[in-house]
Amino acid sequence: MIADSPLRLAVFDLDGTLVDSQHAIISSMRAGFESQGLMPPEAAAVRSVIGMSLDAAIEKINPDVRGLQTQRVAEGFKHHAHATQEHGNDRQPDPLMPGARAVLDRLESAGVLLAIATGKGRRGLISVLEAHGLLSRFVSLQSADDAPGKPNPTMLRQAIAEAGAEARDSVMIGDTVFDLQMAHNAGVKSIAVTWGYHPADQLRSARPTAVIDHFEELDGVIDDMSGQTKESLS
Predict the structure, then answer these.
(1) pLDDT of 221 higher than 90
(2) Residue 55 designated active-site
(3) pLDDT by residue (tens digit) across 130-149?
(4) Three-state DSSP class for residue 81
(5) In DSSP terms, which residues pair with 15 in a beta bridge?
(6) Does residue 105 have an active-site annotation?
(7) Which end of the chain is more exposed for a tag (fewer CB within 10 A), N or C?
(8) Catalytic residue among 13, 175, 179, 219
């Protein structure tokens, strides 16, 4: 990694990018719908909306759900998720994606700042990071409680500002088109990862700066982007 690289901030999505949380999310979403006597959604439908704000995800899954009913489904989702976190002491935390910790180590050692921008609520975000001993690694944590949902660029812009970086010196890493659209809306480079919840062809249609299939590729791609940025500035 180039020590004096102008690319100094890597902003990660959480669910599907850093951690494999699909099973917990699907379970809680189904519980939310069932709490209101609604047909629980199929797993594929839930995976397709991971990354969106909770209210938007619920209404995307079932367009007939609106207003107060959306809020009640969301409350059912949160109740199930929090109960699982607080009372499921024997449940293992959502696992990190293979290679994630080693890549975070290498990026941090190279002087790249780390941040998160996620559609998850702050309570859930903190819980996941604490479970893996990663909370102190990130200079900015942006959640659904801090800004409008993706692809609105606000949470990404807030992460950049909090880190003291610039948009041109930052990159967004995510597994959904919502992450890539947010990066585009914020004027930030993006890296799509294919191990998450949106198909690779769908990710490519959002025209990310780069696409990778394995976490171990990430720091090399960021290194290449850094070199290109340095050349463009020279």
Answers:
(1) yes
(2) no
(3) 999 999 999 999 999 999 99
(4) helix
(5) 19
(6) no
(7) C
(8) 13
